[in-house]
């Protein structure tokens, strides 16, 4: 199973490193990253594999949200089923 | 494989366009709670609701977190209380209302629906006693919602019940006069009431429903409005197609949440209600969809056609997205809960008569309309009778949720707070319906009710 992590906010050094570290800590494997910086505004979407996640998915969502708050970023983590149900018949 | 543009579209719908699940409502049958002793009945009702819905709120919150989609309300609907109360005295029915309120508070749900009766053909002893105490029950409870079905296409209109609901509304307004007559916002008068409606204040658990059930109401006027805005000056056929596609996506989300809630709670999935439900928040208005189609203001000539197009396209798109569709399923046009409707009334573009015409082509009816506090009871009954007739004659659900705000008149504004919003007091036709309403009895069912 996969999940989508979106990260937005003011650009600073080490955003990808911090998010990636958190993913590794909870057994979440990064599959794809799409990232850009527009006028100091950072935007990234990560697709991650959660098959070997070592905490309940809800707790991982909370941890990522907390990380976002600490870094003054908006981090949202959503299960892939939402996107699949909405965009596929 | 997930595609980036799809991901961005969904995230944008949720964050920028107010897409959400409006309500996850658990229906609970109370038939097995019947007892001739009021205290014993109340104890059984409380225990059953607490047992069945124990995990409703935490489960909905967990689903919210998993999918990153807000679930605004978690609610409960129960068997119409008049059917389980039987010949309890009026105090017994008041105890039942207090019990429902306490269960809702203890479970953390914001509304519990079903303190109501179905009286389209006549009143049982229980229905009459319950209706007598509705004003006091609504004044003394916070979360209890009440509805009365006074008509159906099969049975016609029970005008005695219509007269009684007019009195209930006036009394409720008076008993809650210190809170802008807010009790009336928790009371709905129906024709052809659906038995699986997840939305308040009209939700109840119908007679043909299972022991427990999960019904879900989606929202998303902001998503439809944005799609129309982006499409520019396209033709009506393109507009209808665009709305269908958008409604499909919105409803798929509702279907996913409904199935997941059903699985996690071990409760059967009932229906997804396709309604576009607005809130007073900016960017969450059904009126703005209609204005986005090219109307200067909702209420302008063309409004009913625009609403008919919207309602039909939402149903066509949504039906394919869900395995079971039910409830009210259409666009809601409440006044106080929709920023665009509020503005249209304030600028004089939208009248109660135009709202009535609009209800012929959408769900549900005259909803959250604040009228002067001195509006006569018979006039309110007349408004109800008109609206109910539209439902009966067109074999559809219609409803009235009207608030005669004590001490206020046309030009003043009333604020109910939260999702109930605020509204300018709307003018009502001053000619009397008193002699008409005083006739009593039933209006027979229309000829097309004889379908067999």
Short description:
Chain A has 89 residues and is an alpha+beta fold. In chain A, 37% of the residues lie in helices and 39% in strands. Chain A is built from 3 helices and 4 strands.
Give a description of the structure.
The complex is a heterodimer of chains A (89) and B (452). Chain A is an alpha+beta fold. Chain A has one domain (2-87): 2-Layer Sandwich (Alpha-Beta Plaits), CATH 3.30.70. Chain A has 3 helices and 4 strands, in the order βαββαβα. The two termini of chain A are 18 Å apart. Chain B contains 15 helices and 14 strands. With 452 residues, chain B is of the alpha/beta class. Chain B has 2 domains: 25-191, Anaerobic Ribonucleotide-triphosphate Reductase Large Chain (Alpha-Beta Barrel), CATH 3.20.70; 214-449, Anaerobic Ribonucleotide-triphosphate Reductase Large Chain. Chain B starts with a helix and ends in a 9-residue tail after the last strand. In chain B, strands 1, 2, 3, 4, 5, 6, 7, 8, 9, 10, 11 and 14 form a 12-stranded mixed sheet that branches. A two-stranded antiparallel sheet of chain B has the order 12-13. In chain B, α3 (56-67) crosses α9 and α6 runs parallel beside α7 (159-175). The interface between A and B is medium-sized, with 22 and 21 residues.
């Amino acid at each position: 199973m996969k999940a989508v992590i979106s990260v937005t906010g003011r650009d600073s050094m080490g955003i990808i490193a911090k998010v990636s570290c958190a993913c590794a800590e909870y057994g979440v494997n990064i599959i794809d990253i799409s990232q850009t910086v527009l006028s100091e505004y950072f935007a990234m979407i990560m697709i991650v594999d959660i098959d070997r996640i070592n905490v309940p998915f809800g707790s991982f969502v909370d941890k990522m949200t907390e990380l976002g708050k600490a870094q003054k970023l908006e981090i949202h983590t959503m299960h892939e089923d939402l996107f699949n149900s909405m965009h596929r018949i | 494989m997930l595609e980036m543009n799809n991901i961005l579209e969904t995230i944008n719908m949720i964050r920028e366009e107010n897409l959400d699940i409006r309500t996850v409502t658990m229906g609970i049958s109370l038939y097995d709670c019947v007892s001739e002793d009021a205290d014993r009945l109340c104890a059984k009702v409380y225990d059953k609701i607490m047992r069945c819905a124990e995990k409703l709120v935490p489960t909905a919150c967990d689903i919210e977190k998993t999918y990153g989609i807000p679930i605004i309300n978690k609610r409960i609907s129960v068997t119409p209380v008049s059917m389980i109360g039987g010949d309890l005295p009026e105090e017994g029915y008041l105890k039942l209302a207090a019990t429902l309120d306490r269960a809702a508070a203890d479970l953390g749900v914001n509304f519990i629906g079903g303190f109501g009766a179905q009286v389209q053909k006549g009143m049982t002893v229980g229905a009459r006693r319950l209706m007598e105490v509705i004003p006091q029950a609504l004044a003394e409870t916070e979360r209890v919602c009440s509805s009365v079905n006074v008509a159906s296409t099969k049975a016609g209109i029970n005008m005695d019940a219509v007269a009684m609901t007019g009195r209930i509304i006036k009394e409720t307004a008076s008993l809650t006069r210190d809170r802008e007559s807010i009790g009336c916002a928790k009371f709905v008068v129906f024709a052809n009431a659906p038995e699986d409606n997840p939305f308040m204040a009209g939700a109840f658990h119908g007679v043909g429903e299972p022991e427990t059930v999960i019904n879900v109401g989606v929202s998303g006027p902001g998503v439809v409005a944005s799609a129309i805005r982006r499409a520019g000056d396209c033709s009506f056929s393109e507009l209808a197609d665009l709305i269908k596609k958008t409604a499909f996506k919105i409803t798929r989300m509702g279907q996913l949440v409904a199935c997941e809630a059903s699985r996690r709670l071990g409760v059967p999935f009932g229906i997804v209600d396709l309604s576009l439900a607005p809130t007073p928040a900016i960017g969450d208005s059904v009126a703005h969809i209609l204005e986005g189609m090219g109307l200067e203001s909702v209420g302008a000539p063309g409004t009913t056609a625009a609403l008919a197009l919207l309602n039909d396209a939402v149903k066509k798109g949504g039906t394919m997205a869900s395995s079971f569709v039910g409830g009210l399923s259409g666009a809601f046009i409440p006044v106080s809960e929709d920023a665009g409707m509020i503005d249209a009334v304030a600028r004089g573009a939208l009248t109660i008569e135009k709202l009535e015409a609009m209800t012929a082509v959408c769900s549900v009816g005259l909803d959250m309309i604040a009228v002067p506090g001195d509006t006569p009871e018979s006039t309110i009954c007349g408004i109800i009778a008109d609206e109910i007739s539209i439902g009966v004659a067109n074999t559809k659900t219609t409803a009235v949720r009207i608030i005669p705000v004590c001490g206020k008149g046309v030009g003043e504004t009333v604020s109910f707070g939260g999702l109930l919003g605020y509204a300018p007091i709307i003018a009502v036709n001053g000619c009397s319906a008193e002699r008409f309403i005083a006739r009593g009895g039933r209006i027979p069912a229309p000829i097309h009710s004889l379908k067999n």
